[in-house]
Amino acid sequence: MSKKKRKIGEYSIGFTGTRKGMTPAQKHVVECMLKAFSPVEVHHGCCSGADIEFHHIATHAFGEGVVEIIGHPSTLQKGSLVALHKFAHIHKRKEPLERNKIIVRESSILFACPATEVEMQRSGTWQTIRFARKQNHPINIIWPCGTYRSERCETWPRPMTQGER
Predict the structure, then answer these.
(1) Using CA atoms in the order 156, 34, 30, 69, what is the torsion angle rounded to 10 degrees?
(2) Which site from 15, 45, 121, 128 is most exposed, i.e. has the minimal number of CB atoms within 10 Å?
(3) Helical ranges in the chain per DSSP H
(4) From CA 164, how far away is CA 142, in angstroms rounded?
(5) pTM for this one?
(6) DSSP string for 139-150
(7) Distance CA 23, CA 26 (A)
(8) Would you tell me which CATH number, out of the four given (3.40.50.300, 2.30.30.100, 3.40.50.450, 3.90.1520.10), belongs to the domain 12-164?
(9) Cα gap 26→101, rounded to integer Å
(10) DSSP state, 164?
(11) CA 30, CA 92: separation in Å to the nearest integer?
(12) Cα(2)–Cα(64) distance, rounded to whole angstroms?
C-alpha cells in the first residue's frame, strides 16, 4: 500500500483507541486537534467504541464529505459497523495487528487514545503506539484526563488556547 502524495501542510490522521470508547475529555481534545490540523483524510479501524466516536467527531468537525474518512476493518469484527457509516474508502479486512500497522503507515500523524496512562501488553492501542514509535512516526497521545503528549510531532499548526483545552 502506498501513501498518497500530499502537499506540504496537508495532514493524514491515523487514529487508535479502545473498544471501551473515549472519555469526554479525550473526545474534546481530539476534536480540537482535528480542527487545528485540518486533515485531508483520516484513518481508523472501524471498531466499536473509540473508532466510531472518532468517525463521528471527524464528520461533525468538518461536515460530511469534507475530509476523506478511510476505514480499515479487522478480520475479528463481527457484523459490520462499516455499513452504518459513510467512508471515502474501505480497505479489505486484515488481522488487527497488521491493520494497525497499515493505519500508521498511511497517516502522517497518529492520534492515540489509550484507556490508561500506563503502557499495557495485549492492548491493540498500545501495540499501535509501540509500532509508531519504532517507525519514528509522529504521535499525539491523548490521555483519559484530556492532557496529551506529542512525540516526534512538529508543533501544532496553531497553539491551543486555554479555552480549547
Answers:
(1) -140
(2) 121
(3) 24-37, 50-62, 96-105, 124-134
(4) 14
(5) 0.84
(6) EEEE-TTS-EEE
(7) 5
(8) 3.40.50.450
(9) 22
(10) G
(11) 26
(12) 25
Strand 139-142 with 41-44, pairing:
unpaired
Strand order in the sheet with 139-142: 89-90, 68-71, 41-44, 12-17, 109-113, 139-142, 148-151
Report pLDDT for 128: 95
Given this model, what pLDDT does residue 84 score?
Answer: 59
Spans of all domains in the chain: 12-164
What pLDDT, in 10s, does the model give residues 130-161?
Answer: 999 999 999 999 999 999 998 887 655 544 44
Cell of 123: 492492548
Question: What is the per-residue pLDDT across 47-64, written as a single tens digit (0 to 9) for each?
Answer: 889 999 999 999 888 876
The three three-digit cell numbers of residue 2, written as one number = 502506498
Instruction: Give the tens place of pLDDT for each residue, 65-95.
Output: 678 888 888 888 765 565 556 787 888 888 9
